[in-house]
Amino acid sequence: MKKLIVGLGNPGKKYANSKHNIGFIAIDKFAQIYKLKAKNSVKFNSEIFEFDDCVLAKPKTFMNNSGYAILKMVEYFNIDLEDVLIIYDDVALPFSKLRLRYKGGSGGHNGIKSILTHLGSENFNRLRIGIDKSDNKEMKDYVLSDFSKTEMKILDDVMIDVVNLMTDFINGVRFEEIMNKYNNSSEKDAI
User: Fold this and answer.
1) Using one digit for the tens of pLDDT, what is the confidence trace for 7-59?
2) Does the domain formed by 3-190 have CATH 3.40.50.720?
3) Can you give 12-50 as a three-state secondary structure string?
4) What is the spatial distance between Cα 11 and Cα 189, in angstroms, rounded to a whole number?
5) Which of 24, 46, 28 is nearest to 37 (CA)?
6) Dist CA 23 CA 19 (whole Å)
7) Catalytic annotation present for 109
């Protein structure tokens, strides 16, 4: 059964290290570790990587239109929504905290709003990675701002967990087990 993992972000060098691009950063880390080559897919408006029976994608549609590219891939590869994992940033979570869930609303995230609209369902797996929020910056400016060097070092460690989590998902570990393993491990760090 084919799986799809999508990291959300915005294309282009300008956004490469922005907080809103944490999904792209996760896909890139996975590709780096497993030495995967990117393919630019015009058909899916995405940069894609193939690994075992999984397609990993970075939509080039810009965040607010992510659902368009994802719907194309889900339909083309005939992927069940329970075999889809979306990775994205969350300002409601402390920086670097991981939260997994298998359905829900958008939480105000425009990329998820687009996916909900295009897929017509909220039944897909999500990995939210905390980016915290700023008290002195407008939300849009904050999420489009770059991670600091210190934050990037911390993220590098967090991405090891994220890659392991993605590997579990690809290998068919039940999502509930993945949730128990990684939601709890990031809670221990907070104590």
Assistant:
1) 999 999 999 999 999 999 999 999 999 999 999 999 999 999 999 999 999 99
2) no
3) CHHHCCEHHHHHHHHHHHHHHHCCCCCEEECCCCEEEEE
4) 32
5) 28
6) 9
7) no
Q: Which of 62, 65, 77 is nearest to 4 (CA)?
A: 77
Residue count of the chain, please give it.
191
Residues in a beta bridge with 39: 48
pLDDT over 50 (residue 141): yes
Contact 117, 67 (CB under 8 A): yes
Q: Are strands 125-130 and 39-41 parallel, antiparallel or unpaired?
A: unpaired
Q: How far apart are CA 18 and CA 22, in angstroms?
A: 7
Active-site position among 20, 29, 97, 126: 20
- What is the model's pLDDT at position 135? 82
CA separation, residue 126 to residues 6, 43, 82, 169 (Å): 10, 24, 10, 11
User: In angstroms, rounded to a whole number, what is the distance separating the alpha carbons of residues 71 and 69?
Assistant: 6
Q: What share of the chain is helix, strand, coil (3-state, %, to 5)?
A: 45, 20, 35
Q: What is the pLDDT of residues 171-183, one digit of tens each?
A: 999 999 999 999 8
Distance CA(113)–CA(173), nearest Å, equals 27
Locate 83 and state its tokens: 């075999």
Domains of the chain, by residue range, sit at 3-190
Contact at 8 Å (CB) between 159 and 166?
no
